[in-house]
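Lecture 7, part 2: worked example. A protein chain together with coproporphyrinogen III.
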Amino acid sequence: MPDGLTLFERAARGERGHPTPVWIMRQAGRYLPEYRALRRKVDFLTATKTPELAARITLQPMERFDLDAAIIFSDIMTPLEGMGVSLRFAPGPVIDDPVRSPSQARTLRPLDAEEHVPFVTEAISLVRSELSHDRAVIGFAGAPFTLFCYLVEGGGSKDFMEARSFLRAEPEAAAHLLELLGTSMARYLTAQARSGADAVMLFDSWVGLLDAGTYRRRVLPLLQRVVADIKAEVDRPVIYFANGGNHLLEEAARVGADVLAVDWTVPLSLAVDRLGTATVLQGNLDPSYLFADRATLGSAIDRVLSEGAAAAAHVFNLGHGIHRTTDPDQVAFLVDWVHERSAT
Ligand code: CP3
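Predicted complex, written out as structure tokens:
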């Protein structure tokens, strides 16, 4: 194990230590008054495209809380603009001209990270140079199927029926689109690692909509290639978040990521039973516990810590993004409680 690694990186690389590292999905965002103050002056897309602003927002939660990692302030949809997609946020992503035909699918171009997303890599360099060396910087991208969902649907949806139908009606165009997204996101994450990200994460927010067979045939081989391509270029832990993937757990563990992140419907102890003790897990407190009294919140955290103890290593997180009405003082309590209760 190389010296000088952060607590987070040690866990992500499979070393069990104390205390358990903790960070929070969507830790930079609207539940923080300082984020809302900044957003009154600048829209979301501009904030993500201005490296100084993106870096400042990334560091906001790091100044308030004793978090072990910063995740770069951006969005999974950001790189799609460079690929030829026009995009707006309201507040979720909206694509006014979604991909609904093979000919539209063919108009998208592969991402050139240097040309299309220099603001992201610059923001990462800025954060890495400003953040203390005992804290990690996490870069991220959307996983191919999740980006495919938004690209075809044109925005958020309960069931992404347009996207799932496209997968069945136009299998070749869908495969082309997924491949293009996979290749592009591998390049994107490699560029993020090269500019200072200590780890990279793939968010598969909608993969739970797929049955295990479809996942195995149409998504898993691509994800395996994405992870292998990143690993061939940079020595950085890769985290894979299979949201809603309780029924895909065994498949998701075969992606080749160093860390498997799961939502709160998968008890970590059950994940260990199913996957064995060699897998590093990230997660998975239900974000709604942040609205409970402290005794309830504290014991829910204790439960996640004790269930995570059987894994190769554990990175504490929520099971999904923090809700925008969460009280920041509850987050401070959570972070300190995780560290205190896992200190020895
Ligand atoms: O702090 C962090 O986690 C880093 C920044 C980050 C954002 N989005 C900022 C954001 C990250 C990692 C994301 C990932 C993301 N974006 C995902 C994957 C994770 C997940 O939640 O499953 C998805 C599906 C998206 C797409 C997206 N972007 C949605 C659905 C929304 C609107 C809903 C919401 O939570 O507000 C966004 C907008 C967005 N992305 C905001 C932020 C802070 C709110 C924008 C604003 O300020 O109005």
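The chain is about 50% helix and 10% strand. The mean pLDDT is 97. Keep this in mind for problem set question 3.
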